[in-house]
Amino acid sequence: MKKSTKGLNTTCTHTGELEDVQFKGAVSPLYMSTSYAFEDVDVKRYPRYFNTPNQEALCKKLAALEHAEAALIFGSGMAAISTALMAFLQAGDHIVLQQTLYGGTYNFAVTQFEKYGINYSFTNGWKVDDFEKEIKSNTKVIYIETPSNPLLTVTDLDAIGKLAKKHGILSMIDNTFASPINQNPIDFGIDVVLHSATKYMGGHSDICAGVIASTQENMDKVFQTAICFGGSLSDYTVWLLERSIKTMAIRVNAQNANAMKMATYLNGNKNVENVYYPGLQTHPDHELAKSQMKGFGGMLSFELNASLDTSLFFKYLQLIKPSMSLAGVESTVLSPTQTSHALMTPADREKQGIKDTLIRFSLGIEEVEDLIEDIEQAIAKVKSITVLA
Predict the structure, then answer these.
(1) Are the C-beta atoms of residues 219 and 71 closer than 8 Å to each other?
(2) Under DSSP, is residue 1 helix (H, G, I), strand (E, B) or coil?
(3) pLDDT digits (tens, 9 = 90+) for 106-139
């Protein structure tokens, strides 16, 4: 797709909006109908066919943001991921998956592929050589996630794109942590881009949705699987998501800035063992992140010193919310072993380097000084309880 000449905030605000012809309202009208005429019409519309007026309009915005030819919106991130995978894989095929993945994607692979006769391999790392070692004669897809959930590892987009094309393989990426504001994988040769739109696109912790974006040819294949799986999104939620995306660039840039300040603070805090954030110069993939990301993102993870009880730390936070998801305007923390990666076995989590003490931190748009104050008071309380014990 030819890149838009419009600015990012302009694209977020205006691309794909519907005109209110009747009343001239400033926002897109909402069409709630689930039943449309079939005679004397150019398009036979039906929600499960992803072509209601609001669905079509939002998909134009999503495609523009990811520099893609086309996009589809789904009922959840996993609906998008599972549909994309099953659209391009069949019995006898093989897929190479990155070792460091969102737990839901990992669980889908290990519980579903075998029953469909699909073979799979996980890499031992996230470097291009790790992927090439796993490619077989029947490999059809390479699947990556960068930055990864929850350790923020960074995979070389350009190298993976070239590797896939060298072997005639389709490349897919979960771009959720970066968002299209910070990273556009299609520009680096990646074929299919996936998102949990529940996160930065929704941005207010009140929407559940997923996205697939790619060429029109690839999306035609996705569509044929999608209409069978039925993972469409209600038009009211589509309308809310279109509204939310209007402010996505503003929100994400504020979250980028907060995450950089927070990572720097945590990295110098004697009560913190490790900090994982690609914006830090100490991150092993920092230079690679600089080369392919426009911002380092609003996500980081860290580990408290072993002497500090992580569960007590969660309990004593007053401003930062211990909460299941991420990317809202409010700052949240969670334990990946209890939530996003709970379906993985302890042994598999250990292989990925996910410790029980790991804390995933999603930065919101609050003043970072207030967030730091909250962290310090929570640590102080944990220390006082530890001393008393």
Answers:
(1) yes
(2) coil
(3) 999 999 999 999 999 999 999 999 999 999 999 9
pLDDT in tens, 183-199: 999 999 999 999 999 99
Tell me the CA end-to-end span of the chain in Å, nearest whole number. Answer: 62
Question: Model confidence over 55-111: pLDDT tens digits?
Answer: 999 999 999 999 999 999 999 999 999 999 999 999 999 999 999 889 899 999 999
Nearest of 96, 194, 93 to residue 138 by alpha carbon: 93
335-339, Cβ contacts within 8 angstroms, sequence gap of 24 or more? 335/310, 335/311, 335/359, 335/360, 336/103, 336/149, 336/150, 336/301, 336/360
The helix (H) or strand (E) run that includes residue 132 is: helix 128-132
Q: Output the CA torsion sign for 327, 328, 331, 335.
A: negative
Residues comprising the chain, all counted: 389
Residues that are catalytic: 48, 102, 174, 199
Q: How far is CA 249 from CA 58, 181, 314, 325, 370, in A?
A: 16, 6, 29, 20, 23
Could you write out the three-class secondary structure of 134-201? CCCCCEEEEEEECCCCCCCCCCCHHHHHHHHHHCCCEEEEECCCCHHHHCCHHHHCCCEEEEECCCCC
Residue 1 above 70 pLDDT? no
For residue 336, what pLDDT is reported? 87
* Amino acid at position 26, single letter: A
Any idea what DSSP says for residue 114? Answer: G
